Amino acid sequence: PALRAVAHRRLAGALRPGGWLILEAFHPLQLRHTSGGPKDAALLYTLDLLRADFAGLREELAFEGEVVLDEGPGHQGTAHVVRWLAQAP
Q: What is the pLDDT of residue 23?
């Protein structure tokens, strides 16, 4: 988690003005599913966490919920994800 916040600040700082950040990650509720992702809650994201880490960006689209993955043998079935699209000022 400490590295995540630093990495996210650097990522936001690397965007050009008007640049886009597109992020998809597993949500803590993914721990209920067997379709992949980290098994450590500290490595899972929520929209609130992303909004805090990327506070200087303008949110354009946000989604937290279940999707069906079909991305190879390690990522199959129902998953709980967070999707976030934001733009640098």
A: 96
